[in-house]
Amino acid sequence: MQTTKKSTLLKFASIGLVATLALTGCNVFRVYTIDLPQGTPLSQAQADKVQIGMNANQVLYLLGSPSMRDTLAPNRWDYLYDYTAGTDGKRKKKPNVKDASQYLSIYFDNQGRVVRIDGKDSLPATRH
């Protein structure tokens, strides 16, 4: 009888080991991760609407709030964008955007009028 118990126990242990190994290699049981967009996604078409001489309210209306407003440089608004693809983004083959490679900096004079725009060429033609 002991050999039967041992063989049954060995059979269940081997089935459990095989099942564990099979499930850990399965894509279905991976952890779901969320897409992580940070900042303001802008396109070149949106940035082209901003013109020299516009006031801050007009820029705010066209682009929304900037990602960063530096207290030491209050006449500069920075729109930055980073994106890390999660499970859905990877399925749709969306590229990651890292290290604020998409940015737009808008400079104002003391009267609140746009005097300079930097970074339009870093933006994609269309938003994703």
From TrEMBL:
Q: Give the family this protein belongs to, as stated in its UniProt record.
A: Belongs to the BamE family.
Q: What does this protein do?
A: Part of the outer membrane protein assembly complex, which is involved in assembly and insertion of beta-barrel proteins into the outer membrane.
Outer membrane protein assembly factor BamE domain segment(s):
39-116
Question: Which Pfam family, giving just one, matches this sequence?
Answer: BamE
Q: Is Signal found in the keyword set?
A: yes
**Compartments in which it is found:** Cell outer membrane
**What PROSITE patterns has UniProt attached to this entry?**
PROKAR_LIPOPROTEIN
> What are the GO BP annotations of this UniProt entry?
Gram-negative-bacterium-type cell outer membrane assembly; protein insertion into membrane
Describe, as the record does, how this protein assembles with itself and its partners: Part of the Bam complex.
Q: How does it sit in the membrane?
A: Lipid-anchor
**What's in the keyword line of the UniProt record?**
Cell outer membrane, Lipoprotein, Membrane, Palmitate, Signal
Q: Give the primary localization class.
A: membrane
Q: Does the keyword Membrane apply?
A: yes
Q: Where are the transmembrane segments?
A: none
Gene encoding the protein: bamE
Task: Name any one GO molecular function.
Answer: protein-macromolecule adaptor activity
Q: Which organism is it from?
A: Moraxella pluranimalium
* Gene Ontology CC annotation, any one: Bam protein complex
Output the InterPro entries linked to this UniProt entry.
Answer: BamE (IPR026592), BamE-like (IPR037873), BamE_dom (IPR007450)
- How is this protein named in the record? Outer membrane protein assembly factor BamE
